[in-house]
Amino acid sequence: MGRVYKRGRIWWLQYYRRGDLFRESSRSPMKSLATAILRKREGVIADGRLPALQAEKTRFEDLKRLYVQDYEINGKKSLRRAKQLSAHLAEEFQGIRASEITSQRVQDYISHRLKDSISNATINRELAALKRMFRLASQQTPPLVLVTSIPHIPHLREDNVRTGFFTEEEYKVLRAALPDHLKVTFIIAYWTGMRAGEILGLQWDQVDLEAGLLRLEPGTTKNGRGRMIPLVAEAREVLRRWRDFTLRRYPTCAWVCHYRGKRMERVQNKTWDAACAMVGLEAKLFHDLRRTAIRNMVKAGISERVAMAISGHRTRSVFDRYNVVAERDILDSMQRLETVHSADSLQVERGIDD
Fold first, then answer.
1. Among residues 149, 192, 216, 295, which is most buried (max CB within 10 A)?
2. Is 296 a residue whose pLDDT tops 60?
């Protein structure tokens, strides 16, 4: 049997399940409401169910812990980013019960972030993290049931997808301006479309200059799959010279991308920005090289299936987003069309004259 009692202005309820004592606030000064909640709890206990009782106690911190733990257990490379997203969400939801994170509360969160001039893309990453938290909580099996429902969490429209890439002239100009340790990463990215993290993680035993291949082992890439990446002559030659320099000056360094024998942690840094500014390419990002490589492979006649295998794209939709069509490509296609049209017109005119 349970009972209701008063603490200050608020009525509380007390009940037992299998000998365990539970106390819960009705959060109301009305005894009738506390009594109704008590009857509901006693009914749940009579049916042999407890999820609702546990879910009432689940707070945002519990969801956050599951989310970060999932990244740690699975060794996901984006753990740092997951913690950042969790921190932003905690500013709004810290200390709040999971049952109180309703669809309206999520909409309020979106409004607050938009007022702070946060981009839709960033907000979407945060919302995706919140949705993942709820899904992980919902997957817990009895007797550990943390949530009984998941609120509707919308996805905002993103119109800020970057479409930048390097022309051949820009590539040559910036290549000349970069110091040697950045030049190596720059050339690899331009020709292969590898992600910055993949390039920075390369070790010399993954480089086969005789076969002209880079080997990425399973688990070292974003999608977890290994792959082989072919190297063009320029990339092979640069890597050969850089390897000789490394063996001569830093013989114990296992990393391809290093600065004075120590592994590079970032590519786009002050040195990168200074080199870009020097040649008038301030707006360029290192990630633009990924789009550039994919576009160049497709233009060179490499099948999209092979290009996806080289770049490491698993889905066609993402690959299509990276396969940027440049204004110059469109103009070139018009010139080719005009050339063919002019030739056909000349054939017709000669036929009429004849």
1. 192
2. yes
